[in-house]
Write a structure and sequence with these properties.
CATH superfamily of the largest domain: Spore Coat Polysaccharide Biosynthesis Protein SpsA, Chain A
Largest sheet: 7 strands, mixed
Number of domains: 2
CATH architecture of the largest domain: Alpha-Beta Complex
Strand content: 5-15%
CATH class of the largest domain: Alpha Beta
Number of strands: 7
Length: 319
């Protein structure tokens, strides 16, 4: 039978933590009245993590699923693989290092049952290094909230619960797993953020440092483009082109007035070259927008990708 809940956990070099992780997960999920599964994705671990995962999978065929990568592809790829190989109507994501507390999962499900599509964890009392982890994370969270318009205190907290239908219409790349709530919001998902427990890391070291903040900022540009301009790229390229042509017209008009009324040579000023350059760049930008529009239509029509999302149907066939 298809489970109601799928708990997706990416694993990378967590051999020492896994035994405690399984104990905590079983304690948290055993009390649930719904059916459940745990999908663990080994992200090319170099220790004995995969062997431990296989042992638990052999002992509990009903609940434990294991997906093993050939090499390390990163947390986002592991989460994407876990979602792809899960079956539940509700998907909960969680880290394997036990800084997230599995005991919070029932609470997330309760809030989900109140009518929300996404319940996002907020590490309000975070137990990480303030200088290298917490402060950069807070800055990134503020920037993401400002740019996307989806205001969350803690995008970096992996512990989140989702209804499957709001997170399966897009693919994840780079460090984009933290932007899943943004993508879900773009299709009309109802979001809620709740405080969750956060524990100091017991074993090993953190897999990410300050360099991750740079990757997140770069991915933010991609997310903003996909959300705002993916369906109508002409608005970005065409708008930029019109702005450049407008700037070109202003410079040329200034040179014309100066030439007529003040007898100043046009070709002797670098403003003429700048005006011509801005006009050419603006025209090229508009052409790029038109080409992008053709590509968007080819993408949607060749793959039969809809330009809308449906929440529910009543007396209407899906075919």
């Amino acid at each position: 039978m298809k489970p109601y809940l799928s708990l997706v956990i990416p694993v990378y070099n967590e051999e020492e933590t896994l035994l405690l992780l399984f104990d905590a997960v079983y304690q948290a999920l055993a009390s649930l009245s719904c059916s459940w599964e745990v999908v663990l994705v080994d992200d090319g671990s170099q220790d004995e993590s995969l062997s431990v995962l296989k042992t638990f999978a052999e002992k509990d065929v009903e609940h434990i699923r294991v997906v093993a990568f050939r090499r390390n592809f990163g947390q986002t790829a592991a989460i994407a693989a876990g979602i792809d190989h899960s079956q539940g109507d509700v998907i909960v994501l969680m880290d394997a290092d036990l800084q997230n507390d599995p005991a919070d999962i029932p609470m997330l499900l309760e809030r989900l049952d109140e009518g929300y599509d996404v319940v996002s964890g907020w590490r309000k009392d975070r137990k990480d290094n303030t200088l290298t982890r917490t402060i950069p994370s807070n800055i990134a969270n503020g920037l993401i909230s400002k740019v996307t318009g989806v205001h969350l205190h803690d995008y970096g907290c992996t512990l989140k619960a989702y209804r499957r239908e709001v997170i399966t219409g897009f693919r994840l790349y780079g460090e984009m797993h933290r932007f899943i709530p943004v993508f879900a919001h773009s299709v009309g998902a109802k979001l809620l953020e709740v405080p969750v427990r956060h524990h100091p890391r017991r074993y090993g070291v953190a897999k990410y440092g300050l360099e991750r903040t740079v990757k997140v900022v770069l991915d933010l540009f991609t997310v903003k483009f996909l959300l705002t301009y993916s369906a109508k790229p002409i608005y970005l390229f065409g708008g930029t082109g019109i702005g450049l042509i407008g700037l070109s017209a202003f410079l040329l008009l200034f040179l014309f007035i100066r030439r007529v009324f003040f007898q100043v040579a046009v070709l002797g000023s670098p403003l003429f070259q700048m005006g011509a350059m801005f006009f050419i760049l603006g025209f090229q930008s508009i052409l790029m927008g038109l080409i992008a529009e053709l590509q968007v239509r080819t993408y949607h029509e060749s793959q039969r990708k809809p330009t809308y999302t449906v929440k529910e149907r009543v007396n209407v066939s899906k075919e």
